[in-house]
Q: What sequence folds into this?
């Protein structure tokens, strides 16, 4: 079964390496036959949250904000790719996520984390999980951690360590199960 998936990446640092991991996740999902859109916070340059997308008149919302809303509405689910900034999430990722709400409802999410060091950003995952649950896109139990992200993937998202190719398969398989279950239930209707 093919799904529409938004990979949400939230680092805007000039020397960011996590984009390599985000591109790996995107490529891996596409190789399984899914339609994937990368939502990169650096591309859209959203303002610090003042008004959520839903609070704008449809003609007044900034163009980038409207484009993201379209991608999120189109998606059957989301992969959140987060670095670990002081044991929590990057501020640009939180800002991007907080601009939207209804676009996430009743769709699953999956969490991929990364770091420059050996732990792969795992300490940020509980923070991301709390946010996704509150936004109405609960995360799957399995997460995907990427250690030494700048050395594990090339600039195009190709894994330099072949173990990542195997490890991501369980993550994707579990996510696909949740995507199918949530989509089936959405087709029957949602509580609101």
A:
């Amino acid at each position: 079964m093919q799904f529409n998936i938004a990979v949400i990446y939230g680092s805007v640092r000039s020397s960011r390496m996590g984009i390599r991991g985000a591109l790996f996740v995107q490529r891996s999902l596409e190789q399984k036959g899914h339609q994937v859109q990368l939502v990169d916070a650096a591309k859209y340059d959203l303002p610090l949250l003042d008004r959520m997308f839903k609070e704008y008149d449809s003609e007044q919302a900034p163009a980038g904000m409207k484009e993201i809303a379209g991608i999120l509405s189109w998606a059957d689910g989301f992969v959140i790719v987060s670095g670990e900034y002081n044991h929590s999430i990057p501020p640009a990722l939180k800002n991007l996520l907080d601009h939207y709400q209804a676009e996430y409802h009743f769709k699953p999410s999956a969490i991929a984390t990364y770091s420059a060091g050996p732990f792969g950003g795992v300490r940020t995952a509980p923070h991301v999980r709390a946010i996704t649950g509150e936004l109405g896109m609960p995360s799957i139990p399995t997460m995907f951690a990427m250690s030494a992200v700048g050395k594990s993937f090339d600039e195009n998202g190709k894994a330099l360590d072949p173990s990542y190719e195997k490890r991501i398969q369980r993550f994707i398989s579990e996510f696909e199960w949740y995507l199918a279950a949530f989509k089936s239930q959405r087709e029957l209707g949602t509580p609101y």
